[in-house]
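General statements about sequence and structure are easier to judge against a single worked case. In the encoding step, the backbone of a single protein was reduced to a row of integers, each denoting a local shape. The record that follows shows the chain in one-letter code together with its fold in token form.
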Amino acid sequence: MEYLKNSRWIDLLEEEDLAFIKRFILVSGSLKDLATAYHVTYPTLRLRLDRLIAKITVLDSRNIEDDYERLLRALFAEGKLDAASFKQLLRTYNQQKKDSP
């Protein structure tokens, strides 16, 4: 996971995220037009954008030095981990770090 620390946030995005950003730019930032292009409702598109913003915020954060924690937080931001699982994984990981010599 050392690669996370040495990468730019944009390099850590999935192809699907990059395609979304490209389409967003090509529709001049119009969420209504983007929702139409994806054949989804505005609230669905807004949720996806909010999750992408949260993911980028995590990936770009200088406050998170640990790569595994950054990965967990990015997965949670994307909605790929529910809150209970995220908290349990992070708690267990932090406990293991604390217990390691």
Remarks:
- The chain has one domain: 2-99.
- Residues 2-99 form one domain.
